[in-house]
Task: structure prediction
Amino acid sequence: MSKKSAQSNRERAAAALREQQRQEARRRNLMVGGVVGVLVVAVVAGFLWMRANDSSGDIAAPAAGSEFGLTIGPEGAPREVIVYEDFHCVHCADLESRTRDDLTAAAEAGDVRVEYRPIAFLTQYSVRAANAFKVVLDESGPDIAKTYHDLLFENYDEASGSEDGLDDDTLVSLAGEAGADEDAVRDGIEQVTSQGWVDDATKAAEDAGVQGTPSVLLDGEPVSGSSEDIANSLAKAVG
Result:
């Protein structure tokens, strides 16, 4: 073999080695990037899960009648319940289905004053749904807003399919089903005109010590446990 051929072979071998090293480095980088990506997703998912489940700790919430809620039942009722909730929270939807009838009946009987305080802890849909609720409350009054509130939770299963939740047309349609004038609320829902109220309501909840949803207070004291536990405690208190 000539010196020229031997040198050419060495150059090809060196080039092949460099290419192999480059490919191995690329695979290592992709592997590290994939692991980091999985960890980031896990951390974010864990944070959202904690926000949706951790309602422990002291809460210094203002009494019913705040600017960030919808109240049912008479002022001066012997018991008071405050519910911090997120329309995209599965546990909030569960609690709502378990407590709605009991709390509504007790409020109508004058035995309890209940204030629902929608906040946005989880997703952009949390913001959009709370905004839609506020738009309906302002345009149509508390009775229709309460019906709308209930319908939003009744449609939680559909909303839970993605972070986007229900689309604007569905939010408007549900408002009409609740008794609102769809034309009167459409712009506010589509343009998210009450996002400032949602942001302020959420900040007020955080400042009061709310760490997750649902967070429920009975006569100013937090009610802990699962949705079923909370529902049972409220039923005993107001039943």
